[in-house]
Sequence to fold (129 residues):
Amino acid sequence: MVGMKGVSFSVPDQQKSNLWIIENTNDGQIYTIDLDSERCYKSTMPIKPLRCIPDSATYLHSFSYGCGNKQIPADTWLVKIDNVLNSATVSHDGLCVPLTGHSFLAQPRKKLFHRKKGTTSSITQKTRE
Fold:
């Protein structure tokens, strides 16, 4: 499971919502909890999540993720699955903790659609889900 907490702004009226988003990669479900309205919405993940980085991935770069004394060594990879191009940053320690991710979907006769996953913070190294 991956959990993200943040703020969302609607388009075009810029209405603010405080959200918790929980992605259950085992069953492919996303649970969006609207903290303002105290409602929970369930949806199916539009993109099959990566369990970790496959051997076919292309290494892009390494860096330290975080700040101060809470930095995590991380690696960023380019992963292509079917017609979906993913950029995934995971912890370098072999536990494959997801830190950031971007998915690029090609839609026929339309511009490239970009879906950005959230950024996970306050991660403790060597923690398994």
